[in-house]
């Protein structure tokens, strides 16, 4: 199974902000949309960075509440790990575990086409295992 299959189920909606968006505005979007990270893309299609709840908490702990009025570029991760549509689910799980990340922007032909979270990967894998179990039960019952 690969990334494109997850995006077919989940959809390709990507929420972005710019490097100049305030941390406070980023927090509002995260809370309103119920997401854990937002892609920073000044042009809406090229990934400039990513900022997660964890980045914001770290910024607050290190700099205090004044960080909230600063721009996203101050807290965003600039070296973003991405994936492609044909990447395998097992590879994503390994990459997310090794790099301790929970979100991967999906890039196709140099354009941002989606975001995969660890929750998406786990849900897809659980669904896949449940389907396999059902097929095996049906096979055993009808043999």
How is this structure best summarized?
Helix content is 45%, strand content 17%. α4 packs across α5. It contains five helices and six strands.
Topology:
Elements: H1 3-10, E1 16-17, H2 23-33, E2 37-40, E3 49-52, H3 53-63, E4 83-84, H4 89-99, E5 103-108, E6 111-117, H5 118-141
Parallel strand pairs: 1-2, 4-5
Antiparallel strand pairs: 2-3, 5-6
Key terms:
143 residues, CBS-domain, 3-stranded mixed beta sheet, 45% helix, elongated
Q: How would you describe this protein?
A:
This protein has 5 helices and 6 strands. By secondary structure, the protein is an alpha/beta fold. It starts with a helix and ends with a helix. Helix content is 45%, strand content 17%. Helix 4 (89-99) packs across helix 5 (118-141). It has a single domain, classed as CBS-domain (Roll), CATH 3.10.580. The model has no long low-confidence stretch (mean pLDDT 92). The chain has a 3-stranded mixed beta sheet. Strands 4-5-6 form a 3-stranded mixed beta sheet. Helix 4 links the parallel strand 4 and strand 5.
């Amino acid at each position: 199974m690969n990334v494109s299959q997850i995006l077919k189920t989940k959809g390709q909606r990507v929420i972005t902000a710019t490097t100049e968006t305030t941390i406070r505005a980023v927090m509002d979007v995260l809370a309103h949309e119920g997401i854990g990270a937002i892609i920073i893309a000044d042009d809406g299609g090229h990934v400039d960075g990513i900022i997660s709840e964890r980045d914001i908490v770290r910024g607050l702990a290190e700099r205090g509440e004044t960080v909230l009025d600063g721009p996203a570029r101050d807290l965003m991760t600039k070296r973003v790990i991405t994936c492609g549509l044909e990447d395998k689910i097992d590879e994503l799980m390994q990459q997310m575990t090794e790099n301790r990340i929970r979100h991967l922007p999906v890039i196709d032909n140099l354009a941002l086409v989606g975001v995969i979270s660890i929750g998406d990967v786990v849900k897809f894998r659980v669904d896949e295992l449940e389907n396999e179990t059902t097929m095996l039960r049906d096979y055993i019952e009808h043999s």
